[in-house]
Structure formats: structure tokens, C-alpha cells
Automatic annotation (TrEMBL):
<dbReference type="InterPro" id="IPR012675">
    <property type="entry name" value="Beta-grasp_dom_sf"/>
</dbReference>
<comment type="similarity">
    <text>Belongs to the TRAFAC class OBG-HflX-like GTPase superfamily. OBG GTPase family. YchF/OLA1 subfamily.</text>
</comment>
<dbReference type="InterPro" id="IPR004396">
    <property type="entry name" value="ATPase_YchF/OLA1"/>
</dbReference>
<dbReference type="InterPro" id="IPR012676">
    <property type="entry name" value="TGS-like"/>
</dbReference>
<dbReference type="InterPro" id="IPR023192">
    <property type="entry name" value="TGS-like_dom_sf"/>
</dbReference>
<feature type="domain" description="OBG-type G">
    <location>
        <begin position="2"/>
        <end position="258"/>
    </location>
</feature>
<feature type="binding site">
    <location>
        <begin position="11"/>
        <end position="16"/>
    </location>
    <ligand>
        <name>ATP</name>
    </ligand>
</feature>
<keyword id="KW-0067">ATP-binding</keyword>
<keyword id="KW-0479">Metal-binding</keyword>
<dbReference type="InterPro" id="IPR013029">
    <property type="entry name" value="YchF_C"/>
</dbReference>
<dbReference type="InterPro" id="IPR004095">
    <property type="entry name" value="TGS"/>
</dbReference>
<comment type="function">
    <text>ATPase that binds to both the 70S ribosome and the 50S ribosomal subunit in a nucleotide-independent manner.</text>
</comment>
<protein>
    <recommendedName>
        <fullName>Ribosome-binding ATPase YchF</fullName>
    </recommendedName>
</protein>
<dbReference type="InterPro" id="IPR006073">
    <property type="entry name" value="GTP-bd"/>
</dbReference>
<feature type="domain" description="TGS">
    <location>
        <begin position="280"/>
        <end position="363"/>
    </location>
</feature>
<dbReference type="Pfam" id="PF01926">
    <property type="entry name" value="MMR_HSR1"/>
</dbReference>
<keyword id="KW-0547">Nucleotide-binding</keyword>
Amino acid sequence: ALTTGIVGLPNVGKSTLFNAITQAGAESANYPFCTIDPNVGIVEVPDARLDKLTELVNPKKTIPTAFEFTDIAGIVEGASKGEGLGNKFLSHIRQVDAISHVVRCFADDNITHVSGGVNPLHDIEVINLELILADLESVDKRIGRVAKLAKSRDKEAVAELPVLEQLKETFENEKPARSIDFDEEQMKIVKQLHLLTSKPVLYVANVSEDDLVSDGDNEYVQQVKEFAAAEGSDVIVICAKIEAEIAELEGEEKEMFLEELGIEESGLDQLIRAAYSLLGLETYFTAGEQEVRAWTYRHGTKAPQAAGIIHTDFERGFIRAETVSYDDLVDAGNMVVAKERGRVRLEGKDYIVKDGDVIHFRFNV
Ligand code: GDP
């Protein structure tokens, strides 16, 4: 399963946020494919469409889809120099598919800041630089090998070398790989390098209770937003402390608490949705009388593989996917009317599933 790693300097609120994630926790019995690991938190993906489908179909059960956050503890300056803990930290980042970078944007004299004062841009740089230096080292090593092959006119090496050199120059200017606009062919080469700084990043600005409620971004948040915009990354503003409280509530209680605070959606829910889309994940639905359920697939997945997410038999025996878009189904009010209107399509094995499709798979057993 794809996962996003929670990263940040010490004392920025990572554990508080991760606790909120596990507290809000999904019932893992519903998600046997998720990892069981104390450093992994499974979250349900909030989706208003699922509530609407439940209203329409009135099933016995409704099951949201879920995905994983991984807590990546303790980066320290110097991680890229490869000393014990630092090495471990980098190898954990290598295993995640995207990064949620928590940045301290709250002032609190009682909580020590590792670099002496609240300074989000400096914090971001410390972590980004460690990742850039680690990537520089891998690219340097690879250049050594590839340059030799390129000299003897190895075709692949000739294509790879200029990409490596551009990466090296970028790293030497202390910029991440994701800041380069590669074309499709180059992108394929970059993917194979498994760089740390080519992973997509989301910045999580952790603000104080007061700043969250007063709605205005504080100056720290503005700095983070400017930095992220230049890089093409998104920023989610949360107060980890409040999230930990919200995570203990459910349903109406949760709604009332949010209303009291004057916010529409909890920061954690925003973070979940942003990380989900950062990973290139989308949702299709199955809607029967027994169960209405959301399923996660990767953007670009074809119908048989999407069916295989429910059960391998569905993929092996795939015949076709009876498909209606969420909007068409809601417009029609029910399947019968949607069919009468010709909105229900019979899609074959080459159909690329779209976000919001409501699907009934036909298969041979
Ligand atoms: P970590 O080292 O990044 O995991 O940071 P922690 O989650 O342990 O948080 C460090 C300290 O900051 C703890 O004392 C938290 O209670 C406090 N803290 C975390 N988030 C917030 C927040 O949103 N507001 C305030 N005031 N304190 C926070």
C-alpha cells in the first residue's frame, strides 16, 4: 500500500499529530491489507459522497476507504553523513511514497526549539538539505559508473548521463529533484534512481490553538506558504494539540466541537485528503444493499485491476464493469432510473476507472 511519511525536526508536534492519527484510527479489521506496525497509522478517508450514497441505498453497512501514515522519528542535522540514527532515518524515508513535512509555526516558551527559536524556513532547510546531500551522494556514485558506459557509447548510459548531471548541479545549488521540470523520458530515468527529493511533499504548518481559531495565518505560516508555492507544494495548517482532542470525538460530538471552534473541517481531515491526492490515489464505490463501500486505487488503474483490489477472483474472472458516475447516480436518484436514462455503462478490460465511479463488477468464478 502507498504511504506518506510524517517527517520534521524534534519538538515540532509530530508525535502529537501521529497520536491524533492513531486515535482517530480506522478499525483495522476492515482493512486487512494495511500494515500492522506501531509506526503506521491507518486513517479513514473522509468523503461526503459516501454519506450521500448511503442515504440513497440505505445499506446495512457503510465502509470508508483507508490509507496509511508512517511516523518517521527523529531526524538530526548530519543524517546524510550516515551516522547510525541518521542512516536509519533516511532509509525510512526511502520507503515512503510521499512526505508530510511538519513545521513548527507555534511560539511556546516552555517548549524548547532545537535551533533556538521558531524559524520555519530554517527548519525546512535543515531537513531538505539532509535529503539533498544524501541524493547528491547517490547521484555522484552513479555518475562514476554511467560516465564510463557512456564513453563506450552504451545507449542507455548516453541518455542517463545528462539527467544525472542536471540533478547534481541542482543538488549543489541546494534544490530538490522535484524542482526540476523533466520530460517523460527523463522522468523514467529519475524514477529508477529512487531519490529522496523527488518524492512529493506536503508541508504541515503546526500553529497554536489561538492562531487556528483566529483564522488569520500568522507570519510563520505565510513564510511556509511562500516557500511551498515557489516549489509547487501544498500547505495544510493544523493545530496538532487540538487535533488530538478532536480525534477522541466522533459524529455529532465532533461536529459540535468544530462548530464551537468555528472551523468546517478538522485539520487532520484536510491533511488526509491532501496526502491521498498527493499519492495519486482516487476512490471508486460499490453500492449494494448489504454494503456501500469506498475503494482506493491508483490514478490510471484499469477496471480488472480495480476489481482485484476487492478480491483476486474478481480480477481473474473479470467480464465487465457496470459503471455509473457518482453525479449521474445522484441525479437519477437510484440505479433503475440511471439505467433508464442510459447512464449505466458496460465497461471492458481496457476501461480506466475514474474517481467517483460507482461500479458493479461482473465476473466468472
Ligand atoms: P515531536 O518531537 O515533533 O514529536 O513533537 P511533540 O509532538 O512531542 O511535541 C513537542 C511539544 O510541543 C509537546 O510538549 C507538545 O505538547 C507541544 N505541541 C505540539 N503541538 C502543539 C501545538 O499545536 N500547540 C502547542 N502549544 N503545543 C504543541
